[in-house]
Each structure stands twice: as C-alpha cells, then as structure tokens.
Amino acid sequence: MALIDLGRGGGGGGRGRGAPAKPRLVMIVADPGRESTAAMEWALSHSIVEGDDILLLHVNMPHPNNGAAGPGPSRSSSGGTTGSPIAALLGGGSADGGDFMEAMRAACKARYPRARVVGKRVEPATEGREAKAQTILAESQRRGVELLVIGHRRFPSFLGLRSSSGSSRAHDSTAEFLIEHSKCLCVSVQKKGQNAGYLLNTKTHKNFWLLA
C-alpha cells in the first residue's frame, strides 16, 4: 500500500460520466547532475502514469564564479545513476557536450511515448538566496502543476549547513523551500546507491525509504 498519495488519475473527480479528464501536469526540476537524473528515474517509475503531461523545468542560474551558465552533466556516479537506461540516455556522465534537457525529454518519451513532454528554460524571477526556489514555485503555481519532483542534493557535512530544526545535518534549501511552500504535492528524491532505493521527503513524510 502506497504511504504517499501521489494524486494519480488526472483529477477526474466531480466530472460527469464520459467527460474527458484533464491531464495531470507533473513538473520535474531539470538540472545537469545525478540528483536530477535520480528524481526523473523515480518519477517515471513510481509516480507518472499514462495520460500525465510532463514539464521539465530548468532555471538558468548564473555561475557564482563567472556569471556563466551552470556546469554540464555531472561526471560523478556516486549517486548510483550510472548504468540505468536513463543515465545511458543522459550520456552516462560522459562529457560529450550534449543537451541535458533534450536527453531528459528523450528519456521521458522513451518511457511514455504518448505523453506530452515539454522542456522549459526560464530566467530567475527574483534575486537572492532563494531565487531558484521562488522561480520554480512561481512557475508551478502559474502552470497549475499537481506534482512537483526535485532531486535532493546532499552537501558535505563540513560545510556546516544547518537544517530548519537547527541540527547540523547538511540539507538542500531549494528542495526544503519547495516542500514547505508548494500548494501542490512536492517530493524531493535522493537515490541511495544503484539498487538501494530512494529517500523521499514531502511536507508530511520525512526520510521515507522506498526500495528500488
């Protein structure tokens, strides 16, 4: 029995018999790294169903060093995505210069050929520490997203980051901001090794372990 209600079914409640159900819109935050790949893997295998629309959203945040766009696909495979079909479509972490957004879109179409998959790049709507999170939040609300999926990035503990509870646990402020403020269901996803499963967080479920 699923312990997290993912709102499957396209929201057909309340419509007359025979009335077409409005497609559910699922937004996946798209970034060129293994965290985003893991989030997409989980979404495609555990949350998206036939009839859903998929929106891949990337926020063009400036690079902190030179103002250029963020780095290319991560070469690290410690997140356990290398070797999966999706990782293969993403280039398996190789520096081939491919467009990660197009690779992610192709992976979604390969899993759900009839799905409407759109990749969208947007500029930050605000400035400051929460610019990325606020931009994703605004886009999800404007587009009527029903499920928001984001990869949960884990930072080295020596950075001294603290969670909202005051603990010294390293955390991803963007994911936590979206979980707290999203009107729709927001799920952050962290993959634990190749076959160890996923660690999920929502507003009502903390560190929920899902086997692969």
UniProtKB/TrEMBL annotation:
UspA domain: from which residue to which, for each copy? Answer: 26-184
Show the ranges annotated as biased composition (Gly residues): 7-17
Q: Which InterPro entries match?
A: Rossmann-like_a/b/a_fold, UspA
What ranges does the record list as Low complexity composition bias? 64-86
**Stretch list, region Disordered:** 1-20, 62-86
Give the protein name, as stated in the record: UspA domain-containing protein
This protein's species is: Panicum virgatum (Blackwell switchgrass)
